[in-house]
Design a protein that fits this description.
Layout (H helix, E strand, L loop, with lengths): L3 E4 L5 H15 L4 H5 L7 E8 L2 E15 L2 E13 L8 H13 L7 E4 L5 H6 L3 E2 L4 E5 L10 E2 L5 H12 L8 E3 L2 H9 L6 E4 L4 E8 L2 E8 L6 H7 L7 E4 L12 E3 L7 E4 L19
Parallel strand pairs: 4-5, 12-13
Antiparallel strand pairs: 1-2, 2-3, 3-4, 3-9, 5-15, 6-15, 7-13, 7-14, 8-10, 10-11, 11-12
Length: 292
Amino acid sequence: MALEFRSGYWGDAAARAEFLRFTRQMHRLDLTAWHELGYWDERYTPFSFFDGGRMVSNVCVYLLPMVVAGRQCVVPQVSAVGTEPEWRRRGLNRELTERAFAWCRGRAEEFSFLFADEEAFPFYRKCGFRRVGQHRFTAGVPPRSAGGSARLLDMEQGEDRALLVEVGGRRTAVSDRIGCLSVPLLMFHALYTLRDCAYWIEEVGVVVFARVTDGILRVFDVVGPEIPPLDTMLLHLPEFDAGSIELMFMPDKLQLRSVRALGGDDPAGTHIGGRGFPYEAGAFRFPFTAHA
């Protein structure tokens, strides 16, 4: 039986359910909550081969609204790539990737990005991507009072989710160099990767995603219409025990007196495709909440 190519099928309930099954099986990621709570993003576009009603190979392109080098733009990110074991080594993912980027022409920037594990590096190299190393931006912990007024949001509560959506809808980019403006993708992270560390600071009108691991305070995102100085936000966070701070985004808006950009291993396996990415030769980091 010949495989059927399909794209843009989110309006087909059976096909969407099959996509959810595929991502659960292939990537151990259940997107059901993101879908059922109403945060699904139509800009998350699938390119898939079906064998009858069963998806056997897939590539998704997320057309992300971003700020890059001070300019609002739309940037493709590749994700949810995979093929069922019995259909591998037939060039299916390569063909889907080519179809996806043919579709992107004229819709988005010429450059694109993705994150992959080491096993996938050779495949993406053949598809024209090049591996680049992101940097770690670190700072010291300033003097602060113990225990602030920030309230930890509960993503089980509709009111708290609605607050984050409302603030996210008015957000400015966390960085003028590389920032992501997608509210649906922000809600994905709030529901899955960062659900236990979203703090609402009413006094300055921002939600800060931050947690301490291994003695390091990692700040993943700052969501609000303006980005306050980091020292101001730290005063409002609950008491924490950390020897340093790592910013999981480019820190150009945080008014830091001293920040270090450290190179080295990039566990995300960041890849850039196409032309025009302005920071490839320098110190850069894609925001954590831009990861699809």
